[in-house]
Design a protein that fits this description.
The protein is mainly α. It has 6 helices and 2 strands. Helix 3 (61-68) packs across helix 4.
């Protein structure tokens, strides 16, 4: 259910309550799976609240706020990226950060052609996953902002 809206998850839950199996064991397995998902969601909510409460005391909190300024990046994704990347100052430009995260396509140069492959995937798999799963649709070429 990751990446779905709360309304879609609620619709799915309502639908799951209507599902009935002929065999009792199948019904038991379905109910157990529903409970397992609910338990995991409750744990995620609890941990998210704890992280949100502790974040203002974190030395990297300004970085989290800066990453959240990116269109569509929520608190947990921003905190994950900052925790995984660490010091953003070590990158001279946004393209270096994208390369570190493995968000650039691989290249197989041969003569005049430059065929592009899949993403390169070095760096933090956790940060890359957070960014891709939550925000893949808004991906765009990184640009350096201009000072006023």
């Amino acid at each position: 259910m990751d990446g779905s809206t709360p309304a879609r998850r609620a619709d799915l839950r309502r639908w799951l309550t209507t599902v009935r199996f002929d065999h009792p064991v199948s019904q038991i397995v379905l109910q157990d799976s529903i409970h397992a998902v609910s338990d995991v969601e409750a744990r995620v909510d609890r941990l998210t609240k704890q992280i949100e409460e502790l974040a203002p005391q974190w030395a990297m909190a300004p970085g989290v706020e800066a990453v959240q300024a990116t269109r569509g990046v929520a608190f947990i994704v921003a905190a994950t990226v900052v925790a995984e990347v660490g010091d953003f100052a070590r990158f001279d430009n946004p393209s270096e950060l994208a390369a570190y995260l493995g968000l650039v396509s691989s290249e197989h140069s041969s003569g005049a052609t430059t065929p592009r492959g899949g993403i390169t995937k070095p760096g933090s798999a956790l940060a890359r996953r957070a960014l891709i799963e939550r925000h893949g649709p808004i991906a765009c070429k990184p640009r350096r902002s201009r000072a006023p």
